[in-house]
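Quick start: what a row looks like.
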Amino acid sequence: MPVLALLASAFLHAFWNALLKRERAPQVAVAGVLAFALLFALGAALASRGVAFATARALGWGLAAGLFEGLYFATLAAALARADYGVVYTVARGGAMVIVWPAAALLLRESVGVGGVLGACLVGAGLALATIRRPGERRVSRAGLAFAAACAAAIGGYHLCYDRALAAGARPSPLFAIALATALPLVMVSLRGRLRPREGAAPRSRAALRWAFAGLLCTGSFLLFLFGLEAAGAGVALTLRNTSIVFAQGLALGLGERPTRAQATGAALVAAGAILVSGW
């Protein structure tokens, strides 16, 4: 069951990220998506049973996860505004795994075998391929890569914080709700006046529908991930969720992107490394 939840989470995550890439101004749209996701998360939290946060420590880790979530949403939108979706997704998700696996082994004492080491090496090689270009190939935005790398660090941070919050007695739905409530003000501050309306009432209504749908997918993705994380641990949960890189490459084609051979090979290596690390 945790495996299926994490794989479903991976698909939904890649899907809502692709919808964000389709927006003319991803850095503005992400605020709308996050606001709707918070509404859905609050609804899920109210419907959940049991004590939301069994300890103060669980609440503290939830707030810390929210800080990383805020950084994640802001840097994701900034990266998508500057670089192709397929490259951004590969760097952000693969880079996060490189961060979380050593941390899970050193800080959380999760076991890492030979397969984990080999998988991590494949991920590193895949990231290198995904970000290089050959003569004549379209240049990859350095700013986009920088924001994608920052996004990877944020993903690694909220994964570890969510793991600690669940271990300390947090329930998944309230945990995600408190994290989003912490993240939204940070994202709003990062926009710095970009939210000035430029469209009429009808276009804004269509935008709201798009953001609501993306927010619903985002909420479903994160809740499935938290349920899987609760059962599987930080390293394995992140690895299985990173199979979304495969989904992302297919969605990138749907967006009209044509990845280079190196980028496609890099994404395949990252996905293969993720599977190897998971012990499949």
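That is the whole record. The chain has one domain: 2-192+213-278. Residues 28 and 196 are 9 Å apart (CA to CA).
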